[in-house]
Amino acid sequence: MDNILDLRSDTVTQPTPAMRMAMANAIVGDDCYGDDPTVIELEQQAAAKLGKAAALFVPTGTMGNQLAIFTHCQPGNEVIVGDDSHIVWHEVGAAAVISGVQLRTIESHLGALDAAKIHSKIRHGADIHEPQTGLICVENAHSNGRVIPLATMQEIWQVAQAENVPVHLDGARVFNAAAHLNVDVREITQYCDTVMFCLSKGLAAPIGSILAGNEAFIAKARKKRKLLGGGLRQVGVLAAPGLIALNEMPQRLHEDHRNAQLLAQQLSTIEGIEIDLSAVHINMVWLRFTRELDVEFLMQTLTQAQIKANPPEHGWMRLVTHWQITNADLSRIVSALKTALN
């Protein structure tokens, strides 16, 4: 065994050989001046694929989400968001620091938000004591690995439209969601005003995300990106692999999903491991240890098998498949976990 299997996330993917060649040969300009042709091409193609008028290349998904909040909202606004969302859990409280907004969390059902609950929380600021709802944020695919049904997206969108509140979609893995639902990604993004997705997760680009919306929104977001220190220069070297990520990698995401399902099925047969197979929608396997576990021995066993994984938290462990985890690799993973539990 001379290859390391990295299951920590799909953010660990290495760029494909074609991406590396594209980086070397990229035609570049200065994106801060708006004249990097490769960036322009990526932004235009991304906007078209998402069914939006314009798009903006940003370094990270967190910047894309926070830029959306920063652009949609005024300081003192309230943002309605799920209590288990990435924006709440993993973005360092940035909404308060950058945009001066407060997050009003509502309970989600395994990542899905109830439109009626959202409707009940919307505030228009008529009362001098109340903030105004500036934005509703939803997530699909959710960071728990589940895909939110289109009907749920539509119900939230209809409430937002009726109340004149914009919707932002944290679509870090929206192409995974589309692959799971077997629909064009625009079937999902039609139910939001703006959307962010990551080129650097399952699509395997080395860096970068896209924020998309209407032309006025993106023009405003471009200036705010500069304010945040995101004015980019010869970034065509990163947009070039992004074009491959956008145009070629979505077609193979079903392979990652299938490998995750196969891995989950095999791991579920091991005594001491519990997996909800119906929850394996995309490329994530969440497993729960049902008996006492020596975590140090588990991690040592995985290391000896040349497998990288994040240690379990509160009895749960996440394994993520991607283009560098093949069907042939699954047996090594299963074997290592069997050894760790024996």
TrEMBL record:
Cofactor(s) listed in the protein's UniProt record: pyridoxal 5'-phosphate
InterPro entries the record matches: ArAA_b-elim_lyase/Thr_aldolase, Low_specificity_L-TA-like, PyrdxlP-dep_Trfase, PyrdxlP-dep_Trfase_major, PyrdxlP-dep_Trfase_small
One Pfam family linked to the record: Beta_elim_lyase
This enzyme's EC code(s): 4.1.2.48
Enzyme class: lyase
Alphabetical keyword list: Lyase, Pyridoxal phosphate
Gene3D superfamilies reported in the protein's UniProt record: Aspartate Aminotransferase, domain 1, Type I PLP-dependent aspartate aminotransferase-like (Major domain)
Superkingdom of origin organism: Bacteria
MF-aspect GO terms: lyase activity
Ranges for domain Aromatic amino acid beta-eliminating lyase/threonine aldolase: 6-288
Family of this protein: Belongs to the threonine aldolase family.
PANTHER family with a match to the protein in the record: L-THREONINE ALDOLASE, L-THREONINE ALDOLASE-RELATED
Subunit structure: Homotetramer.
NCBIfam families the record matches: GntG_guanitoxin (NF041359), PRK10534.1 (NF007825)
Protein's recorded name: Low-specificity L-threonine aldolase
Organism: Deefgea tanakiae
